[in-house]
Amino acid sequence: MTAVIALDAVSHCFDGEAALTNLSLSVQPGESVALLGPSGAGKSTMLALLDGRLRGWQGQASVLGNQLSATRSPAREIRADIGFIFQEFALVDRLSVYQNVMNGRLGRMKSWPALWGRFGEQDHICVTRALQDTGLSDLAHRRADRLSGGQRQRVAIARCLAQDPELILADEPVSNLDPAHAERILGLITGAARSRGIGVIFSSHQPDLSRRFADRILGLRDGEILFDKRSGRVTSEDTDGLYHGASAATGLRVVS
Amino acid sequence: MGRSVIWGALALAILWSLTSADMGLEKLPGAGPRLTEFLGRMIPPDLSIWPEVLRGLAETLRIAILGTLFAVILSAGLAVLAAETLVPPAIWRPVRGLLAVIRSIPLILVAMLMVGAVGLGPLPGILAITFHATGMLAKFYSEAIDNVAAAPVAALESAGASRTQQLRWAIWPQMAPVILRDTVFRFELNLRESLILGIVGAGGIGLYVQTYVRSFQYDKAATVTLAIVGLVLLSEALNTALQKRFS
After folding, report:
1. A203 occurs within a structural domain
2. DSSP H or E segment with residue B82
3. Which residues pair with B17 in a beta bridge?
């Protein structure tokens, strides 16, 4: 079985400071992986690299069987197969929820009809399903800038689901959601991984949720993988060490 | 210390302006009766000239519409060259400088030059409005380009959207309301400014104002003034209504 993600000795520096150090990783189809780690651990950098948006890194990386380049974006067809849920949502404020979700389908369409707003039947079906799955059907015609933070995050998730990707990369996808919505969304994303055999990697600051929904957890700190374990084997010592270690490294004291 | 210097300088400037020898302040007491006399001669307005007034208004409106249209076309091209996010400083800096120079030349001066170049009539008016409005619109449009948020564009690119699709569904929706709002605002300004172009022979209703005032036909000048006030109020109401839609 071809791995959906294969990293081999990948490193990256920001302004001379190491952001990723010698990362090697393989993710199989149908597998859900959670990235845990304090802010600045390299989670977003790693996800941007896998999405083909990072420049100037070293090493070997392939996604969905395609070698990534450190100097240019992947081809349009490859980008269409990789869904990304942005931490800051990245919605077009003046467009409706429906059109924002439809934007996720653009990579699957011919360029010209889409310019006039003519979308295919399959595109409408995917958008409607994604809106239902994220509980947004009633808000479909509301403008994105008239939504709450949690609703906006669900639109960003619906856009990714409508894309019908072969791999989902999610940068803290449930950080703005209440517990009920967070569980529903993580269940939806990781459920898609199992039922459709696609890969999922999501970053999070919530060890308990990660343990419940991911098959595997990667502990990341200072750009290095501290542990890579099946979810059931990750202990509270592992996660405590991940966060408290960083606190010591940054000079902060942890008060319990 | 700094603040008292500024207040002192301001007081001096006002005092200097008031005490200037050629102000002719002594003429003020006589102005009231004279103004009353003028106003008396304006009432009742001579409404028999309404066909001419309508023709003049129509020509003014045409100058404003065509001047705005050509300015929009020119500005679209120049805005790209003036946008910090699209071209290197070696291009946008001089283009922005050129736009600033264009904006600083008074419209009436441009109109006089155009009358000299192409003769009397609405054409010099259209050219003058085009030239003058381009200085402002191209600057506004380039700012609209520079203010486009990058994240939604990156999100569409990440999802596999082509460049034209990104332009249509992430860049244009962010720019469109700003561009439409600025264009409507500029059209209203163009309409107001083209009202006076006739005074220098560059077409429109301004010619009638000048003709009637110079020939002491104040009742007719009153009719033209009323028509101008009506048109300006109408365009202002239209502008306000459209601005609300673009928010």
Report:
1. no
2. helix B50-82
3. none
pLDDT band at A255 (very low <50, low <70, confident <90, very high): very low
Sequence ranges of the domains in chain B: 46-245
Six-digit token string for B48: 């028999």
Question: Please, are residues B155 and A86 in contact by the beta-carbon 8 Å criterion?
Answer: yes
Answer positive or negative: Cα dihedral of A101, A104, A108, A114. positive
> Span B153-160, mean pLDDT?
93
Which CATH number applies to B46-245: 2.40.10.270, 1.10.3720.10, 1.25.40.10, 2.60.40.1170? Answer: 1.10.3720.10
| Residues of chain A with C-beta less than 8 angstroms from the C-beta of B174 | 92-94
CA–CA dist A99, A127 (Å, integer): 9
Q: Is the pLDDT of residue B211 over 90?
A: no
The domain spanning residue A36 has which CATH number? 3.40.50.300
CA distance A83 to chain B (A): 6
- Give this complex's ipTM: 0.87
The shortest CB-CB distance from B159 to any of A112, A115, A163 is to A163
Encoded tokens for A90: 């990245």
Asked if B158 reaches chain A (Cβ–Cβ under 8 Å), the answer is yes
pLDDT at B21: 65
Between the CA of residue B87 and those of A134, B90, B134, what are the distances in Å?
A: 41, 8, 19
As separate numbers, helices (DSSP H) first and strands (DSSP E) second, chain A gives: 9, 10
Q: Which two tokens stand for residue B146?
A: 């520079």
Domain ranges, residue A190: 5-198+208-249
- Give the HSE-up count for residue A217: Cα atoms under 13 Å, Cβ half-sphere: 24
The answer to whether the CB atoms of A106 and B156 lie below 8 A apart is yes
CA distance B102 to A93: 34
Region B160-182 average pLDDT: 91
Render pLDDT for A37-67 as a digit per residue (tens, 0 to 9).
Answer: 998 899 999 999 999 999 999 999 999 999 9
Instruction: For residues A95 and B70, give the distance between their C-alpha atoms in angstroms, rounded to a whole number.
Output: 29
Least confident of A11-20, A168-177, A236-245, B184-193: A236-245
